[in-house]
Amino acid sequence: MIPVGVNIELHGAEFLAERKIQGSRMGSNRFRVDMPRFVDFYLSGKLHLDDMISRRIKLEDVNEGLQALKTGEVARSVIVFD
How far apart are the first and last CA of the chain? Predict the structure, then answer.
């Protein structure tokens, strides 16, 4: 993600190799079509989301969770609401 207002520099020679730039927002997903499919995949055991969670944290621990992401201690934390 590029923050709003940030410019990037491109080297013109890269385009001589017939390369192109294409933007993407949320992976260009079709939320109404894709999300139900992902839920079905998860429920049927074809999408292993639980394996992608490094740590489950409480909302009050969100600052520590963000710090763990910054340091690379974890790849992904999920906030659990009890």
Answer: 31
